[in-house]
Specification:
Helix 8 links the parallel strand 5 and strand 6 (191-195). The chain has 2 domains: 12-37 and 282-376, Aspartate Aminotransferase, domain 1; 39-277, Type I PLP-dependent aspartate aminotransferase-like (Major domain) (Aspartate Aminotransferase, domain 2). The protein has 379 residues and is α/β, with parallel strands linked by helices. The chain has helices at 12-22, 39-50, 63-77, 83-86, 93-104, 121-127, 146-152, 175-188, 215-218, 227-231, 245-258, 264-276, 279-282, 284-299, 327-338, 366-376; strands at residues 26-27, 87-90, 110-115, 131-136, 157-163, 191-195, 221-226, 239-242, 305-307, 314-318, 340-341, 343-344, 357-361. 42% of the residues lie in helices and 15% in strands. It is built from 16 helices and 13 strands.
Length: 379
């Protein structure tokens, strides 16, 4: 059989987690929390499962959860969306991203992505018959050059994918970026897929600039988010998409044949948690900022250059003063000889620059972060 994705192998996340397990290293590579989901959430999951809510949910989501999402959007971003027609619950954000891409992209369409990019974008575009147009962002600031974006747009360009706060660079788009983006979308009649899975993890008092804050931007957008990131339950694979009704109609045509519906007890449990403990979302940035600051302080005596983290639960380290190894080889050295698993930044690029930068995940217990930092400070 001829492969549809001939250049795709095992993901770097699986590779590094496998090595971490093999060498019993502290795993700061893959982006999942080491701590558990909130107690209320787990209790409600058990309650609904034991109470017989174990059959298919409506394809677009349990109405109670759709309503909670719509209320959150209005509370956080001031946009009133119709829960029934504009909100769809998905089995993780990756499913939502895949479905949005399939809904938009036709053969030979071009989609602009910013490298370093989450690894699911390109395969989804290619499976739709489209072409990924890569624009590289580089250390240390990873700023978007909007003139370069303008020059990359052709008559085949269909959409732009953004990710803010950005994984893996940890940077956030600023208001000037949003204005430049909106201008290009309107000028060239393009669509936007806005990957906002870390929307509730922004640091140092800055607000998350969601596509949902601007009605004209939202009018041409699929906005994707993740309950797994927000509620420390990545294994539940729960996410959602918010889009104008006309776009959501096309989204749901594909969603129903990709997954049909998502885990019913989890939907009901998340709806309860959002309604009864809204402070969990409101306090998430503070929670993770404390962990970011703890790791930065613990790494201060090291020879790593620490790049500022504006959001997500990741921290980037420049190791150019420590080793001449490329980042993949350096990460293999770290996991095998130092006992810490990290992710090389080059794997997120189509054509990687020579930046010697690695990514650490700080969604871990404080003791894990301190122990990892102690090992890294010995280099």
């Amino acid at each position: 059989m001829q492969s549809k994705l001939p250049n795709l192998g095992v993901s770097i996340f699986s590779q590094m987690t496998g090595l971490a397990n093999q060498y019993q290293a502290l795993n700061l590579s893959q982006g999942f929390p080491e701590f558990d989901a909130p107690t209320l959430l787990k209790e409600r999951l058990a309650h609904y499962s034991q109470s017989g809510f174990n059959q298919y949910a409506p394809s677009s989501g349990v109405p109670a959860l759709q309503q909670q999402i719509a209320q959150l959007v209005e509370r956080k971003y001031g946009l009133a969306v119709n829960a029934e027609h504009s909100v769809t619950v998905t089995s993780g954000a990756t499913e939502a991203l895949y479905v949005a891409i399939q809904a938009l992209v036709s053969p030979e369409d071009e989609v602009i992505v910013f490298d370093p990019a989450y690894d699911s974008y390109k395969p989804a575009i290619e499976l739709a018959g489209g072409k990924t147009v890569h624009i590289a962002l580089t250390a240390p600031d990873y700023k978007v050059d909007w003139q370069q974006v303008t020059e990359a747009i052709t008559d085949k360009t269909k959409a732009i994918i953004i990710n803010t706060p950005h994984n893996p660079s940890t940077k956030t788009l600023k208001q000037a970026d949003i204005e430049a983006l909106k201008h290009l979308l309107e000028q060239h009649d393009l669509y936007l897929i806005s990957d906002e899975v870390y929307e509730h993890i922004c640091f140092d008092g800055q607000a998350h600039l969601s596509a949902l804050r601007d009605e004209s931007l939202f009018a041409r957008s699929f906005v994707v988010s993740s309950f797994g990131k927000t509620f420390h339950c990545t294994g539940w694979k729960m996410g959602y998409c918010v889009a104008p009704a006309a776009l959501m109609t096309e989204f749901r045509k594909i969603h129903q044949y990709v997954n049909f519906s998502s885990f019913t007890p989890a939907q009901l449990a998340i709806a309860d948690a959002m309604g009864e403990q809204p402070e969990h979302i409101d306090e998430l940035s503070t929670f993770y900022q404390q962990k970011r600051d703890l790791l930065i302080e613990a790494l201060a005596p090291s020879r790593f250059k620490i790049l500022p983290s504006e959001g997500t639960y990741f921290l980037l380290l420049d190791y150019s003063d420590i080793s001449e190894l490329d980042d993949m080889a350096f990460c293999e050295y770290l996991v095998k000889d130092v006992g810490v698993a990290a992710i090389p930044l080059s794997v997120f690029y189509h054509q990687a620059p020579n930046d010697k930068v690695i990514r650490l995940c700080f969604a871990k217990e404080d003791s894990t972060l301190i122990a990892a930092a102690e090992k890294l400070c010995q280099l």
